[in-house]
Amino acid sequence: SGLLSRWKTSAPTIRTLSSSKPFSQNIPSCLWKLGRLNHVAIAVPDLEKAQSLYKDVLGAQVSETVALPEHGVYTVFVELGNTKLELLHPLGEKSPIASFLQKNKTGGMHHICIEVDDIKAAMTELKKKKIRILSEEPKIGAHGKPVIFLHPKDCHGVLVELEQA
Q1: Do 41-110 and 115-164 agree at the fold level?
Q2: Which fold has domain 115-164?
Q3: Are 76 and 7 in contact, with CB atoms under 8 Å apart?
Q4: What share of the chain in percent tops pLDDT 90?
Q5: In whole angstroms, how large is the CA radius of gyration of the chain?
C-alpha cells in the first residue's frame, strides 16, 4: 500500500507537466507574417548549360531568360511544383552575381526567397531587431513584386530575400 500512495501523490505532478503551453504560444506576435518558400536562387556561370540540365536532363518546366538590369542579373525560373529554382547569371560588370562567381567558379546557392504578407511592416520590425537590410527601399524583383535582401551575417550565413506575397 506504500507504493500505491506514493504513485497517487506523484500523479498530479505528471499532469501538470503534460499541460504546459504549446510551443507556438512562445513565438512573439508580429505585424507581418512569414509565408512560404518562394524559390532558391542558384548562381550559374553558364546559363544555357544550367537551363539544359533542368529542362532536357531532369525534365523540368523552365522559363525564358529575363534580364533584370536593376539587379544586374539574368534570371530563369525552374518550376518544381511546390517551389521554384531561380538560375542567376551576371548582367553587366557590376553584377553581384559576377562577384559571387569570381569566388565560386562553378556557381552555387546564392539566396533563398521567402514570401511575406507586408514587406514594409517586415522592414520596420527587422530594423528594430538589428537585422540589416541591403537597401533603403524595396526593389521590384523578378516576379514584379517588391523585394528586400537581409544581410547574410545577420541570417546565419544565408542571404535571405523577402518578397511581398
Answers
A1: yes
A2: 2,3-Dihydroxybiphenyl 1,2-Dioxygenase; domain 1 (3.10.180)
A3: no
A4: 78
A5: 23
Tell me which of 3.40.50.720, 3.40.50.300, 3.40.630.30, 3.10.180.10 is the CATH number of domain 41-110: 3.10.180.10
Task: Report the C-alpha gap between 84 and 82 in whole angstroms.
Answer: 7
Length of the chain: 165
Phi, psi of 28 (to 5 degrees): -65, 145
Joined together, the cell numbers standing for residue 18 give 503534460
The pLDDT tens digits of the residues spanning 20-71 come to 445 555 556 678 999 999 999 999 999 999 999 999 999 999 999 999 998 9
Q: Is the per-residue pLDDT at 13 higher than 50?
A: no
